[in-house]
Amino acid sequence: MVFSLLCATPSTAQLATISFPDTRVGTTSTVKCPGATAICFGSNCSGSGTVQSASGPDRPFKIDKLNLLTLSQFNAGNCEANATSLPVTLGAGQVLTYQATFSPTSTGTFSGTARFSTSGGAATQNYTGRGTSTTPGRTDKGLISLQVNTDNLVPGNAISVRYQTKRGTLAGNVDMYFAVAFPSGQLLFLTGGGGLDPTPQPFRRNVSVADATETLISAPVPVDFPFGTYTLYMALAYAGATPDLNNLGPSLASGISQTTVTFTPLSAAQQTLLASRGNPDFLSVFWVDEANQKRESWLYVSSPPMQVVFVNGAQESQESVSGVTGGPGPKVDPSMFTPQTTPGSLTSAFGPPSSVTPVDGAPSLQAVSYGVGITAIFRNGRFSSVSATP
Fold this sequence. Notes:
This protein has three domains: 2-132, Immunoglobulins (Immunoglobulin-like, Sandwich), CATH 2.60.40; 143-263, Immunoglobulin-like; 268-388, no CATH class. A hairpin with a 2-residue loop joins strand 10 and strand 11. It is 6% helix and 49% strand. The protein has three helices and 29 strands. The longest helix is centred in the last third of the chain and has 10 residues, at 268-277.
């Protein structure tokens, strides 16, 4: 059995991965004992065995300076006390150490693997490192700061994104970049035409930075955007510089400002009410696409009975009610009903509909009823309303 000092598994030992620090092109980073660059045999190096050969890793990684050390030499960092070569036999309490180096010749992220053949089986060790620019970049810098009107949005809300700039020590013009990371992790950049593109590009070029605050976006949230948390980024780059996502430092004329916004079916106020009272007994939800408005009425029958009305997630009214008949209702989850709701999503939740009928003979409007006691209206397949009333 072959073991690393970090207790790799026997027979096909996977030694601990070595992650080199960011290393400038043309320079070298080195890892050696007492780092994870060693092989021994048996539990706590109590066994013996032979390391027969080694292959890899490919450039820009390299292993060299093999030494056969005692455990005390290894732990003391006497990495080159007893040079050796392969094949080499290790006794109990002995360790084969080696030096690992990373010498990038270009920028970017690299990986490599060394493979050792031993009497106890194969052993491998992975290496990762990132090569960075040979130039430290300019030192004149400006400032940019993102501001959003809220950190929680629901369908019907508008988002306002503003940015504040300060010239600082900038000696020239800049390009402005804005990017958004979707909940899926996809990163898209705002283009000069107002679209989103995965290719890094500025939305403004060759701009003279002033001490000012400007509005970047002020618009309703697209209702079909996926629910989840979005991360917004903004930065200044020296005019004409092409940012390398693996090495942004030399091109940036400011720090990167970032903030997060969460797009959810229900507002914080609605979620708070659900946490205290649970799902309402009955509800009605109306989505007016032309007005970008979602109006909801939640009715609680249990004590104290009350009706709460929300418009685009904001509470419009709350009043006590009396004389409600019909007993406890279906208590469906209000978060299920948004402009993104489809007949398929309701069927997945409640089973096949009990009926599907046109509304007032209009083929574009369909009433879809479910056995739980709710009826949803769809216009050309898009959600329009739902009701579960006593």
